[in-house]
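Researcher: Structure for this, please.
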Amino acid sequence: AVVSTQSTGGVSNLAVVALEKLLHYDLAAKYWHMGSLSPTDVVKDGFYDTGAHKPGDDFKPLKFLLDRKVDNKRAVLFVSAAGADPEPADLKSEASTTGSTTNVKTGRSTAKGKKKAEEKKEEPVPEPEPVKEIKDMSKPRVDTSFREYVEEVTSSIAPLASQEEQVAALAVYVSNQMGGPVSSLPALSYDLHIAQLKADLKTNVIPVGFVKRGVFYHRALLYKALADRIGVPASLERGEYGRAWNQISLVQGGKTKHFLVDLMWEPGKLMEVGGHAAGVYKKL
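Model: Predicted structure, token format:
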């Protein structure tokens, strides 16, 4: 279904409530239209972020976006841990081709199977089979990295003793999957990275696990998607100029306090809502 943002001047409160109920069943449309998902809005396989809507524009179905030729507009981010046929080796996401995992406490990558590789060094290497051309472009690519992320945070972060520990550890984890702490946005060169992904995949729809150098809105979506998988309540909120953030609530000193989670500058740092640091994080 296509959701329109044509003027609703004079529309009754009943119609507004009806729209909100409709959007409850399509969180991609809800995030596009309202710019916010609550902690109870659980991001599931098939969710996609097209960016903020513009006046008079319509919410586009995923198939339409997949069929659109590659352009220089903002990439559509797709979330799914669903399995399918293996990807061609040259287009697999980086994490799955390097055979590495990330320690959730240190964020350092550790090579898996290095010893085995050295032991097999003397064996003749068989000629690789030609990569099969992808014929079906009607659905997004398989996101093996995101699937691995879900497995890793489920086994390493979900068991942590407190929600505050989970929140901070997940922030560090997400940051490390998307380039680590950032000193400046130009230094990250994320725009060139995204453009290369679009060219390689021949689509504007990029699975979130393929993004290895991400900024606010890439990281906030990944954080929300993973937090929902391990039961950590977090919102997803969109700001202007590519900003997005996650808000969490913690009970401290017998009172419930609300914080933004830093995924960019000091990953894991909690900034109390209403404070100076949180305000700066939301704006340029």
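Researcher: Any notable elements?
Model: The longest strand covers residues 255-261. Confidence is low (pLDDT under 50) at residues 4-8, 85-102, 104-123, 125-135.
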